[in-house]
Amino acid sequence: MECVIRRIRREVKPIYLSSPHYKLFIWRHAQRVAQYAKDFAGKMQGDKFVAEAGGLLHDVGAAKYGKENHHITGAQEAGPILLKCGCPLPLIGPIISAVYSHRGSQRIAFQTIEAKCVAAADAIEHFGNLEELWRVQVEDRGILEVAVYQTLAEKLARDWDKIEPEIKAILDGEYEHAKQKLLEIASKKRKT
Ligand SMILES: [Fe+2]
Ligand SMILES: [Fe+2]
């Protein structure tokens, strides 16, 4: 299945990188979500290929058409890409389903364990990249440096809240660790 993943990567990379709606970080985000989703699926006895492909594809709709309804536009884009990449037909449905249900805000029921993995990966992808997330708030979103800590602390809490209990169980300590890291970044910023 590695070759199918490689082909999907080749197809989606230019879509993310040429997005008129997002800057470069969205491609890195999609790759990291794919990696997390695959890891979660491995730990949850899910299908690693479905989770990884879902992660790579989950935000193509946002990249191409913008944030609004991107779970729907993404699900529509995913099918033809998967067919073109030679994805086995029985796996196309589960991957599209994972793309469709990835936004916690839409409250769409998860059909599979892999869909839970993609949504969880999307929610906490930035836990390990808080410095970058901090920069995005200031540079892209124009939030004042003094307000970033509060904004991000609330975001972490919301994201953690979105994760299904069985995935939280395998992420022991991750949330506490991320909160600690955020405090450290904030105190470093205060000194500079
Ligand atoms: Fe998304
Ligand atoms: Fe995302």
Write the layout of secondary structure elements.
Elements: H1 2-17, H2 25-43, H3 48-57, H4 60-65, H5 70-84, H6 89-100, H7 113-124, H8 130-139, H9 145-162, H10 165-168, H11 174-191
One fe (ii) ion (FE2) binds next to loops.
Give an overview of the whole structure.
With 192 residues, the chain is mainly alpha-helical. The chain has a single domain (2-191), classed as Hypothetical protein af1432 (Orthogonal Bundle). It is 73% helix and 0% strand. Helix 2 runs antiparallel to helix 3. The radius of gyration is 17 Å and the shape is globular. The termini are far apart. It binds fe (ii) ion (2 copies). One fe (ii) ion (FE2) is lined by residues 29, 33, 58-59, 122.
